[in-house]
Each structure stands twice: as C-alpha cells, then as structure tokens.
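Bench notes, afternoon.
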Amino acid sequence: MPKPAEQEIRERAHKLWEQAGKPAGRDEEFWRAAEQELRNEDESSTLRTPDTL
C-alpha cells in the first residue's frame, strides 16, 4: 500500500481543520486523521476487486 503524498495529506488535513472550526494546537491530530482517511480511500479503491487481490 503506497503512502499518500505529503501534499495530499496537507490538503486533506487543512480541509478537516476548517471543518472542525479551525481549532488551534491540533496540527498533528488533523495530519494523522488526514493520512488515515487517504490510506482508507486507497484500500477501498474501486480498482481493487476480489479478482485483483
């Protein structure tokens, strides 16, 4: 499973931070959440089917 690109994580983390009301001091929390979301998306990609696993 490839690791999400840093720019992708940064953009997702920023989006999550904005959605949460832009709280201060929670950078790492949003970074980890964004990274996990992107990894989960990769794992559930429509390109992955039981035939291709």
